[in-house]
Amino acid sequence: MRIHTLDELTPKGKRVLLRADLNVPLKDGQVTDRARLEVLCPTIRELSRAGARIAVCSHLGRPKGQWIAAFSLRPVAAALADVLGRKVGFVSSCVGSAAERAVASLADGEVLVLENTRFDPREEKNDPAMAEDLARLADVYVDDAFSTAHRAHASTEGVARKLPAYAGRLMQAELAALEAVLEHPEHPLAAVLGGAKVSTKLELLDNLVRHMDILVLGGAMANTFLAAQGVAVGKSLQEPEMQEKAREIIARAQQENCEVILPEDVVVGDHPASDISARTVPVDAVPADAMILDLGPATVRMLIARMAAWRTLVWNGPLGVFETPPFDKATTDFASAVASATEAGHLTSVAGGGETIAALRRAGVAGRLTHVSTAGGAFLEWLEGRTLPGVAALEW
């Protein structure tokens, strides 16, 4: 893939429309998680130091083309100023005369946040007229929002076709990490896939078995595969209607020489809550009245031992009900081992997805992997082998 990056841009004095992901959680008008703001800062600081005049655009929530106070980016602009440690302006429109005047008033190095792009009903329709309105604000376009690259919207795809377009540093890092996993990996290449449902990850599973040497299944997803193999899983969460599809995936994996690893032992309980009912049993001895809530210690030890031979790992989805001890242990122990192998230089590790990030933070290792994607849907669609409109618009 060939894309333009900031290395090729001389931004001094230029108006830069920076597509960011400011879709952060708010409570009582305050940003409660600044992670997406923090990872955006390197691109903003680099552009600012080089003398760009930066207009940041983003969506927030799903206002469906209407102005809704709860979805205004004004408090996010204030939080961004705090994270950057400098003044950040705000204008209560994303296009039109007010936005154009606000951008025209910027001095070299100054930063301005435009109002929520989804307040304009043309945004999600990728209306060419809105793309033109956005393009009038800038001389160049920089996309640093990989997490929105799977959406063909006016601010993510349309405007990128109308201005010289570049990838920001976060976008560049995301693409490099994912290319390292799917396009130029060092083998053996393993994927760890957790989460609840097979039905939501069919395309992902189909693509992974074609690329991976090893596929490890955990979380409730593994229950469906176990049941499809005739293993009694008690009252565990599973999808009976997906068992045939699970068998097809295993058969396809065999054809593709992809080894599928399922649990050897599991931790069960009466319900997914912290209580004294938690106990470890062999996978073929799950009580009829119990639920599988985590991978067992023997399975985790086996995975960690196998990891010594792996060279590349992609991870999406926790291995158990990680939010509730003691059913977080498999995810935490495995995450710590992945971090150690990465730091020792034995493993290239890429993880992504909202629950995965939360689990890595809970384990205290989010900063110790090769790359942790801040994207959700875009991360999964890339792993499914789809073309992302926001990325395609940057290619040349």
Mind explaining what this structure looks like?
The longest helix has 15 residues, at 35-49. The mean pLDDT is 94. Helix 11 packs across helix 12. It is elongated, with a radius of gyration of 23 Å. The chain folds into 2 domains: 6-170, 3-Layer(aba) Sandwich (Rossmann fold); 185-383, Phosphoglycerate kinase, N-terminal domain (Rossmann fold, 3-Layer(aba) Sandwich), CATH 3.40.50.1260. The chain has helices at 35-49, 74-84, 97-104, 128-135, 154-158, 169-182, 202-211, 219-228, 243-255, 297-307, 329-343, 354-363, 377-383, 389-392, and strands spanning 15-19, 26-27, 30-31, 53-57, 89-91, 111-114, 140-143, 165-167, 189-193, 214-217, 259-261, 265-269, 279-282, 291-295, 312-316, 348-352, 371-373. The relative contact order is 0.12. 36% of the residues lie in helices and 17% in strands. With 396 residues, it is an alpha/beta fold. The strands form 4 sheets. The protein has a 6-stranded parallel sheet with strand order 5-6-4-1-7-8, sandwiched between helices. A 6-stranded parallel sheet has the order 11-10-9-15-16-17, with helices on both faces. It has a 3-stranded antiparallel sheet with strand order 13-12-14.
Topology:
Elements: E1 15-19, E2 26-27, E3 30-31, H1 35-49, E4 53-57, H2 74-84, E5 89-91, H3 97-104, E6 111-114, H4 128-135, E7 140-143, H5 154-158, E8 165-167, H6 169-182, E9 189-193, H7 202-211, E10 214-217, H8 219-228, H9 243-255, E11 259-261, E12 265-269, E13 279-282, E14 291-295, H10 297-307, E15 312-316, H11 329-343, E16 348-352, H12 354-363, E17 371-373, H13 377-383, H14 389-392
Parallel strand pairs: 1-4, 1-7, 4-6, 5-6, 7-8, 9-10, 9-15, 10-11, 15-16, 16-17
Antiparallel strand pairs: 2-3, 12-13, 12-14
